[in-house]
Structures are given as structure tokens and as C-alpha cells.
Amino acid sequence: MNNQPQSSSPTSSSQNPTSSAANKVSKKGRLVGNVSMFVAKTFSGLNENALKYLLPTWMNAFTGVVLRLGFGSLFFWVIGWIKPDKTEKITMSDRLWLLLTGIICVFGYMFTLLMGLTYTTPISSSIFIALQGTVVYIICLFLRTDRLSFGRLIGIFLGIAGALICILTQKHSEVASNPLLGNIYCFISTFLFSAYLVIEKKFLKRLSNATVSKYTFSGGCLAGIVAVLICGNWFAPVLSSGIFSTPFLVLAFVLVFPSSISYLLTDVALKRLPATVVGLYANWILIVAAIVSYALGQDKFSWWQLLSIALIIGSVFLVESAEAKDHKPQNAK
């Protein structure tokens, strides 16, 4: 009477290899995405210290935005020309939306970040950047593209607690002329970049990395040029400091790695990871920036800062674990 289950066993055994292969592809994609974000955010962490060195002695925020976005635009247009995706179809509406995203989010993010670093320390700036995962999650909840998760909420609260501890214990110093003003700029930059991640994630479902970035960076660069022309605030002694001088080499690092390769790797990750996970990798920027800041004397060691970093690391672990469970394929029964 119970002979029929045997006939279904070939079917279920034939489904297992397919399910196993799908799991391997998924794991490989997540691995590529996580490695990409680790490298990208390592560059971004070093970027905080490099920009702090350049601002405001060797360039101002207006100049920094135009140089970064100008170089980044050229980089992604060349990538798109060398390796075009002939299968993708981009409409005029797509181009306009990407340019608008660049004008508002990319230009706004970079300008407010540079203004923030002018007045505060790399560690303080990185603490606000570490809140990107929280802001992305809130935006996704508001847009109803994500759902509540107890694990993620606990992780997010840990991240917020870590950020608040470091911010509230910060004091004026020779490297932080106006921490409050700088932190306000940094908070605005975090919100704008988080919005950029959510919008970019949507376009990356249909378009290539180079296509999305070349239009958003071009829009941001255009906005930067207009801002400089209107304000007449071009200041760039770094460009006349000599090709092999320390300021110029630091600028070259900023342009090649954090301003270009880092964004390319972020696009690679956005195709394979949820936007909330990508946003949470901003916490790694804090760790890198803190280590380098202490080594270079751009900030002074504090046990409060160490506690905040520990809380933020716990935040990343909890939220990433919750994301992995949410996206784990269900086994057939």
C-alpha cells in the first residue's frame, strides 16, 4: 500500500543536484559580493585619511568634488567603451534619471563629505558613514521593499549605539576645528549615499556597472562644475605641487582607488548582495580609518571609540546573519 513514495524518489533525487548547484551559485555570488565590498571599503577607509590630509590646505571641497567626479566619469566612460554591453537597452528616461541621481545624490554626498572632513576627524566622519546600513534599511522599509527582522533591528541598534558613544564623547582638537558642523555635514552625506545605493540597486538589475556609474558620475561632475562657476571657489594648490610630491601622490590615490575602483567594486557587489548588506560594509571604513588615524596622529586613542567600534562590528555580524537567513533558499520537502 505504501509503494507510491518510491516512485517519487527519482524526482526528488533529480531535484537535489539542481538545488545544490543553485546553492553553490548563490554562495559564489555572495562570496564575490562580500570580497568586492571588503576591498572597496578598505579603499574608502583610507580615503578618509587621505582627504583629511588634503583638506583644506591643498584643496577645498568644491575642487575635491570636481576632481573626483571628473576622473571617475572618465574612468567609467572608458570602461564602457572598452567593454560595451551590446545586449542592454537604456532609454532616454534611464539616462535622465541617472544624471539626476548623480546631480543630487553623488554630488551631494561627495560635497558634504568633504565639507565634513574639513571640520571633523576621519574617525568621526567614518562613524556617520557606518550608519549607511541603518539608513538604507529605513529607506527600504519606507519604500516597502524590505521587511522587519528582529536580528537586523538588534544589529542596527547596536550600530547606532556605537556611533552615538563615539560622537557624544568627541572633543575639539587641533584636527577638529568644528566637530558639530562637520558631523552635520557627514550625516547629510550618509543619507544621500544611502539613497544612492537604493536607487542604483534598481538600475543595476537592467544595466551594467559602467553604464550606471558613467551617467551618475557625469551628472555629479556637471553639478560640481556649475557650483564652482557660480561660487567662484576653485582652490587647488595640490595640482601645482609636483607630480612626485606627497600631496599629488595622495590625490592620485584618491582619484584612482576610492573614486573609481571602489565604486566599480560596489556596483559588482550590488548585483549580488542586498542593498542593506552593502550599506553595512560602511562599518569597515570606520575600522580602517580608525587604525590609520591613530597611526598618523590624525586622532587620539579613546576607550570610548574602541567600545563604539566593537559595537559596530557586532552590528555588521548580526545584520549580515539575518540577511543570509532571509535569502536562504528553502529546501523542498
Describe, in plain words, how this protein is organized in 3D:
The protein is an all-alpha fold. It has one domain (50-324). Helices cover 77% and strands 0% of the residues. The chain is built from 12 helices and no strands. Helix 1 (4-54) runs antiparallel to helix 4 and helix 2 crosses helix 9 (246-270). The longest helix has 51 residues, at 4-54. It is globular.
Please specify the SSE layout and strand pairing.
Blueprint: H1 4-54, H2 61-82, H3 92-119, H4 122-129, H5 132-142, H6 150-168, H7 179-203, H8 209-231, H9 246-270, H10 275-280, H11 282-296, H12 303-326
Number of helices: 12
Strand content: under 5%
Describe the sheet with the most strands.
Answer: none
Low-confidence segments: 1-14
Shape: globular
Structural category:
mainly alpha
Order of helices and strands: HHHHHHHHHHHH
Radius of gyration: 22 Å
Amount of helix: over 70%
Number of strands: 0
Looking at this protein, list some descriptive labels.
mainly alpha, disordered N terminus
Nutshell version of this structure?
This protein has about 325 residues and is mainly α. The chain has helices at about 5-55, 60-80, 90-120, 120-130, 130-140, 150-170, 180-205, 210-230, 245-270, 275-280, 280-295, 305-325.
